[in-house]
């Protein structure tokens, strides 16, 4: 799909990967709604857009864990720019360290998974009617492999990948395209949350990612996302080595699990 002239929503657009995607979309002549729980952060992103392009983007405060706010976000987009062509389900949280508690699991599931489902329920009927639409899910390499440190993050990112797969299988022949972004380390606040947690397992979680491969700038990831959308490619792997890791996991699950236990032990011993 060519994004020029299209209308896009980017959740979690107030920083990190979301902000970079939103800015790249505007540069590519798309009309963009930058949505974030922190409205001021979304407004700051719109504020750095060059003056001649600023009319192509608006900032909206929205909590994607609330279905009515997701509905309001889509309605606001339609009022500003017309029907949504592309929806970037990018908002995410890191979740609790370890097993966590009930409220923290509920929040992680709501933001990392259920928010994708809510958006799809609201958008798919119109996309089917028009015969076109694009859903881009920000998951993680943790959704293909796993995440040392946080059970909730690992489980919900697996679920996000699974939902994106289901969307593609169910609607891919009906004009709806789906891409799923699965990076390792990207230089964002979320990446550094573990090392700032004061918890050894949380610190290990950050080191697990930063030691596994390059830590990319969000702008690099955004460029790869737009390339994948242009190609209508499902799996977006900014770190190509993730594919080989995934193959090794599938080829010998027991060996992979024992290797991950050794890797975790080494990180905790540092």
TrEMBL record:
Q: Which organism is it from?
A: Nocardia stercoris
Descriptive protein name: SDR family oxidoreductase
Q: Which CDD domains match?
A: SDR_c
Domain of life, per UniProt, equals Bacteria
UniProt keyword Oxidoreductase present: yes
Q: Which UniProt keywords apply?
A: Oxidoreductase
Which family is annotated? Belongs to the short-chain dehydrogenases/reductases (SDR) family.
**Matches recorded under Gene3D superfamilies:** NAD(P)-binding Rossmann-like Domain
Provide any one GO MF term from the record: oxidoreductase activity
């Amino acid at each position: 799909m060519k994004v020029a002239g299209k209308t896009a929503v980017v959740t979690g657009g107030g920083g990190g990967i979301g902000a970079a995607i939103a800015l790249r979309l505007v540069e590519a002549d798309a009309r963009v709604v930058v949505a974030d729980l922190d409205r001021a952060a979304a407004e700051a992103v719109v504020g750095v857009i060059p003056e001649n392009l600023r009319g192509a983007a608006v900032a909206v405060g929205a909590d994607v864990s609330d279905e009515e706010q997701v509905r309001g976000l889509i309605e606001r987009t339609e009022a500003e720019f017309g029907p949504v062509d592309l929806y970037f389900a990018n908002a995410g949280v890191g979740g609790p360290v370890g097993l966590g508690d009930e409220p923290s699991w509920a929040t992680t599931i709501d933001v990392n998974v259920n928010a994708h489902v809510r958006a799809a329920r609201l958008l798919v009927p119109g996309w089917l009617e028009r015969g076109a639409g694009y859903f881009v899910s920000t998951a993680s390499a943790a959704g293909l492999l796993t995440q040392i440190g946080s059970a909730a993050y690992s489980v919900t990112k697996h679920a996000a990948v699974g939902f994106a797969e289901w969307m593609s299988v169910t609607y891919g022949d009906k004009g709806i395209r789906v891409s799923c972004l699965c990076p390792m380390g990207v230089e964002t606040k979320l990446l550094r949350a573990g090392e700032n947690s004061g918890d050894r397992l949380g610190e290990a979680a950050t080191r697990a990612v930063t030691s596994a491969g390059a830590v990319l700038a969000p702008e690099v990831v955004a460029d790869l996302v737009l390339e994948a959308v242009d190609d209508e490619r499902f799996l977006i792997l900014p770190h190509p080595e993730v594919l080989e890791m995934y193959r090794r996991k599938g080829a010998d699950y027991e060996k992979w699990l024992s290797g991950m236990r050794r890797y975790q032990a080494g990180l905790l011993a540092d």
